Amino acid sequence: MSNSSSSKPMLAAANSKQPTAMAMALLPLLSMVSSFLLLSSMAELPRLEHPLKSDGSLSLLVIGDWGRKGTFNQTLVAAQMGRIGESLDIDFVVSTGDNFYEEGLTGIDDKEFEESFTNIYAAESLQKQWYSVLGNHDYRGDVLAQLSPVLRQIDRRWLCLRSFVLNAEIVDFFFVDTTPFVEHYWNKPKGHHYDWRGVAPRETYISNLVKDLDLALKESPARWKVVVGHHTIRSASVHGDTIELQLLLLPILKENGVDFYVNGHDHCLEHISSNDCPLQFLTSGGGSKAWRGILNSVSDKLEFFYDGQGFMSLQLTKTQAHVVFYDAFGNALHKQAITKQFHSQI
User: Fold this and answer.
1) Which residues sit opposite 226 in a β-bridge?
2) Whether 239 is catalytic
3) Residues 6+ apart with CB under 8 A from 314
4) What is the distance between the alpha carbons of residues 160 and 128, in angstroms, rounded to a whole number?
5) Please, are residues 223 and 264 in contact by the beta-carbon 8 Å criterion?
6) In angstroms, rounded to a whole number, what is the distance separating the alpha carbons of residues 74 and 63?
7) Alpha-carbon 45 to chain mean position
């Protein structure tokens, strides 16, 4: 696999934090996950299908941390998504979560669904299927509302599930519900209410999810494997690395040859390359409010970092992946091409 980049990496300044007390606290959960991986033999994640273009390619946009009724440049970003979406003839859009601020939706009749989604992403090119995961802000509202098929009657583009697999022949996308992994949402919610219906108890939920993801990855024959979650695994911005995902999710991604981990959560755009495997960490969390003013060091290679609003595109063929990050004005800030050797079977 070969990489080529068109932008210069930005250097980071502060020291990265090492997992210590948190890692020790997660040891019982790690043990439970290991037991499930040994005992289970069937993946249970819901599976969806999406066709390729007639030429065998696929193109999509990725946006995260967006739902603010058009404020904080959400409308501007949406307009440029429409323009780029048309030029790339996109097949669908991926949302990396935090779909509705600040406290998710209040119910299936919450007008914010239309005010932050339907009315904002109105460009013709964006009238394609949206595949979405939940973020931590979504969990502060009525989670079941976002998951409800009733919303599809309001806007047919909307599809949000906790975790699922999307197959598009040459690529499998594995959407993962990362919010329940983060322990402090459970133990120290800072006055926020989290809707854990269908999730509690945490340990069982995470163990089953990790087991199902591992098996789904192992069974996947796709040329490309892309895992989508809300929370960062690697990040140079304010939230930094998510230690629970480093300990519970990252080893599975590496073991199963995942090509991209795509996330939001940090309100920025960034690309980080793993030092010890081909895995690329792609953050697209600039859908609205951004400009945190923080840039920390990371243990892997920081290829690109932008602290402002924007979005990402991904184009795939059997042998090539093209990643582009755009700002709120539609300027291409960073491009990365990744090539896979194709060996035909005789």
Assistant:
1) 173, 260
2) yes
3) 59, 60, 61, 62, 226, 260, 262, 321, 322, 323
4) 14
5) no
6) 11
7) 17
Cis peptide before 102 (omega within 30 of 0): yes
Asked if 269 contacts 312 with a C-beta cutoff of 8 angstroms, the reply is yes
Token pair in block for residue 284: 């697209």
**Chain position carrying tokens 């960490």:** 281
Q: Burial code of 228-259, b = ≥16 C-beta within 10 A, e = fewer?
A: bbbbbbbbbbbbbbbbbbbbbbbebbeebebb
Please choose, from the candidates 157, 103, 163, the residue with its C-alpha nearest in 3D space to the C-alpha of residue 125: 157
What gap in Å lies between CA 99 and CA 256, rounded to an integer?
29
Which pair of structure tokens corresponds to residue 300?
A: 């892997």
Is 277 buried (19+), middle (13-18) or exposed (0-12) by CB count in 10 A?
middle
pTM as predicted: 0.87
Q: Residue 111 has which token pair?
A: 């007008």
Query: Using one digit for the tens of pLDDT, what is the confidence trace for 190-237?
Result: 999 999 999 999 999 999 999 999 999 999 999 999 999 999 999 999
Q: Give the contacts of 74 (CB within 8 A, at least 6 positions apart).
A: 66, 67, 68, 116, 120, 287, 288
Cα–Cα distances in angstroms (integers) from residue 125 to residues 60, 87, 114, 315, in the given order: 11, 9, 18, 16
The predicted-structure confidence for 122-160, as pLDDT tens digits, reads as follows 999 999 999 999 999 999 999 999 999 999 999 999 999
The SS3 of residue 159 is strand
Instruction: Tell me which amino acid residue 258 is.
Output: V
Catalytic-role residue among 137, 239, 265, 334: 239
- With a cut of 70, say whether residue 254 has pLDDT above it: yes
